[in-house]
Every structure is written in C-alpha cells, then in structure tokens.
C-alpha cells in the first residue's frame, strides 16, 4: 500500500537558519501517527512546510499520489490535507457557525450543510453555541471549533498540532477520546503532541524529533522499550 503522506529529506528554515534537517516520514491510509518532541524541535515548522505555509529548501512532499512540494496552501487544502494549527487560531469576532463555514471555503463547499450536521453531531456544544462569538468561548470549546472547522473540509488526512495544549486533565481525556473516535470513523491522522503517554496509547507508529531531525521511527512499543530513548527524548 502506498503512503497517503510521504515526506522525503525535507529541509527548510527561516532566513539563514536551518530548522528542518532532512526529515523523512510517512502516514499510511487509516493510520494515527504520532510526531513527538519538545518545544523547538521543529514539529510546527514541519506541519507548516507540508501545509504550504513555509517553503522547503529541499526534499519532497507527496500526498495521495500527487507532488505537493512547495504547493500553495489552497492547493494543499483542496487536495484534502488539512491542518488544525497549534493555538486553535479561530476567528474571535466571528460566530461558531461562521468559523465552521469558512472551513469549507476551499474544499467541500457544495456539501457544507451535511458536513455541518456531522460537526454538530460530533460536538453538541458547538451546536448549542452556533451564534456565539468564538472569542468568548473557553479554550476547550475553541479547540473543538478548530477541529470542527478542519472536518468541514472533508480531510483525507488531518494534522492535529498540539490539540491538548492548555487543556485541563479532564478535557485532555475528552480530546484523546475524540481523536480515537475520528480514527474509528476512518480518518487518517498525524498527531503532533507533547503529551507522550496519551499519544503513544492511540498511535500505530511514532516519530521523535529533536533539533529539526528525526531521532526515532517505529512503533510505540519499540519506543517505550528503549530506556535511553525515553530518557533522552521523552522525559520518561
């Protein structure tokens, strides 16, 4: 089976500073893949390069059989590769409904009503608050909204960048339960997280980044079996 997402020897940076140093990873159809690493490891830069927000210096990004290396962000979204960014980045002065509708702007616009029903079924709290301004919602509700907005585009692969960041322990549990459910519905996911234990519990495969390079690629069981890796890169 060909990978849904295939990244090979990807390098990029800002100005003259190299941030990604030859990163290669893959996500198979139907997988949850965890990308782990501390702050500053390069995880968000990798996401933004794959999403077309940062231009690569070298390497390739292939998605669903197409070459998306350096593609415009709209082309990436239209292909079905959707990122839910770190920090939620909802539009605070727009309502919940308006934020969700914007998620279907570049892709799946014709199926917006049905996808909106799906999002409201998945997140009943968003249905209750559809006319509320996004900026007045709690952090957990804004994270639901950000994921719901991503689902409006009918993603083939959903990149979740730090979805549990800043949430209470109870909401973290809810978030990972939701991720399990989305995966159970057939969605492929690249989960970019600092929450190591929860991520490894639901992922089929994992990568660990440090200083812009990959230090580990394998199964969660293989990662957890290595004392050196756990101590050096995961703080476990």
What do these coordinates show?
- This protein is an alpha/beta fold and 236 residues long.
- It has helices at residues 43-50, 73-78, 96-103, 112-122, 124-128, 139-151, 169-184, 196-202, 220-224, 227-234; strands spanning 5-14, 17-27, 32-36, 58-63, 66-67, 81-84, 157-161, 188-193, 205-210, 213-218.
- It has ten helices and ten strands.
- Strands 6-7-8-3-9-10 form a six-stranded mixed β-sheet, sandwiched between helices.
- β1 and β2 (17-27) form a beta hairpin.
- GO terms for molecular function: ATP binding; ATP hydrolysis activity; branched-chain amino acid transmembrane transporter activity.
CATH class of the largest domain: Alpha Beta
Tell the overall outline.
globular
Write the CATH fold name of the largest domain: Rossmann fold
Largest sheet: 6 strands, mixed
- Number of strand elements: 10
Q: Which spans of ≥5 residues are poorly predicted at pLDDT below 50? A: none
Q: Order of strands across the widest beta sheet?
A: 6-7-8-3-9-10
Distance between the termini: 34 Å
CATH architecture of the largest domain: 3-Layer(aba) Sandwich
Q: What would CATH call the homologous superfamily of the largest domain?
A: P-loop containing nucleotide triphosphate hydrolases
Number of domains: 2
């Amino acid at each position: 089976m060909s990978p849904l997402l295939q990244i090979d020897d990807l390098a990029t940076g800002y100005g003259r500073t190299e941030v990604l140093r030859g990163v290669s990873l893959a996500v198979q159809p139907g997988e949850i893949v965890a990308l782990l690493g501390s702050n500053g490891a390069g995880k968000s830069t990798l996401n933004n390069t794959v999403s077309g927000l940062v231009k690569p210096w070298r390497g390739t990004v292939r998605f669903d059989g197409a070459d998306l290396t350096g593609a415009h962000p709209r082309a990436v979204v239209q292909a079905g590769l959707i990122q839910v960014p770190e920090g939620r980045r909802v539009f605070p002065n727009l309502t919940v409904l308006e934020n969700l509708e914007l998620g279907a702007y570049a892709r799946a616009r014709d199926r917006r009503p049905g996808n909106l029903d799906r999002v409201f079924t998945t997140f009943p709290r968003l249905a209750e608050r559809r006319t509320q301004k996004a900026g007045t919602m709690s952090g957990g509700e804004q994270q639901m909204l950000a994921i719901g907005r991503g689902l409006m585009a009918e993603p083939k692969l959903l990149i979740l960048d730090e979805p549990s960041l800043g949430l209470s322990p109870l909401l973290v549990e809810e978030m990972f339960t939701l991720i399990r459910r989305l995966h159970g519905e057939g969605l492929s996911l690249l989960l970019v997280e600092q929450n190591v234990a929860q991520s490894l519990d639901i992922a089929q495969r994992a990568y660990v980044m440090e200083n812009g390079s990959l230090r580990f690629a394998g199964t969660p069981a293989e990662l957890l079996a290595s004392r050196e890796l756990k101590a050096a890169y995961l703080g476990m």
